[in-house]
Please model this.
Amino acid sequence: MAPKRPNILAVILGGGAGTRLSPLTLLRSKPAVPLGGKYRLVDIPISNCINSDILKIFVLTQYNSASLNKHIATTYRFSQFSNGFVEILAAEQTPQNPQWFQGTADAVRQVLPHIESWGIDTLLILSGDHLYRMDYRKFIARHFATEADVTISVIPFVREAAEEFGLMKMEPDGRITEFREKPKGAALEEMRVDTTPFGLSAEEAARRPFLASMGIYVFKFDWLVELLARDPTWMDFGKQVIPAAIETGNVQGYLFDDYWEDIGTISAFHQANLDLTATIPKFNLFDTDAPVYTRARYLPPSKVNNCHINSSIISEGCIISRAVITRSLIGVRTRIDFGANIEDTYVMGADYYQSIEEMERDAREGKPRIGIGEGSVIRNAIVDKNARIGAGVRLVNERRVAEAEDPEAGWFIRDGIIIVPKNGIVRDGTVV
Model:
């Protein structure tokens, strides 16, 4: 008799208010932030699930969820002959839980009634703000092979990056014996491990002697329900639930040795997007065996007139005239006028096209139309959706300011990167 196929459901944690990605999260939840010119952050874990044949997916969120709801509803529609789904579970106040989600573990605890109705035996818990490609079937196979109560995906890190993550100590057989959340100094040094038993060469093991949690877990579902019921004050997986699990259960590690980026900060988000423009990017959008899915848009091909474009990505539906574009991403429906110069910048594009009448009205009112105006120079920046940048604007941060903002003038600086927020207006001749 063939072994019983596990009944698996995935939960994607949408995160909190996303303050580290502000102002990109002022009007949307973190999983809804645009990525790579045409995708959204949430498309990454959902695509990994679909490519791994995991088709029951909940996305948990509670902040600014309207655009995320719309994206999920219009994108992920499975066959009526399948029981697959991708659904939003927003935080809800009930007689049993009168508060909003208080942390990652509390979010899962509060939605357990929705999960239990599916009769699952295995729960996959994912983060909504990481960029990576993983076949979860291999991850889950190790979970069952070791008869683990919970398996945690870990990645080897260098010292400089390790202190920003939860770190593990793992035995050669893969069992996790210790977990510390973001240790510093001597506590960090105590978390060094020999990673050669997990497949790294001696050279790589010396360079990356720390095992960081990726925030990806697979649990025996009944065991997780029991674990979360032990102490209702446990709100976070990393700080409370995982250390308790190590004390009482079989907690295993699954080593992932490939590209993975936590893009929860402006600098990491900006760099991860620009890396997509590389000749050989760390994350390959052109992988036909494991594609990234997103909403289908029936847009015309982009029209490029007399431009110089180098190491850049141009999404569909754009109109670009006599511009110089270097190492940049240009999102859907972007309009760029004569003489614009764009470098090391992610332009997210627009949600709609303006009509001729709307553009003429903008001109009469002295307001820039949606897009980037004539002769503007933009360097090391993020231009959010539907932004209006006038003619002769210079967004270059010549003084190399790390943090600043002028919302009335339509710009912010975070981590030295200039940001024009969604629907922002930068008037003609503005210099930053």
User: Anything to note?
Assistant: The first strand starts at residue 8 and ends at 13. The chain has a mean pLDDT of 91.
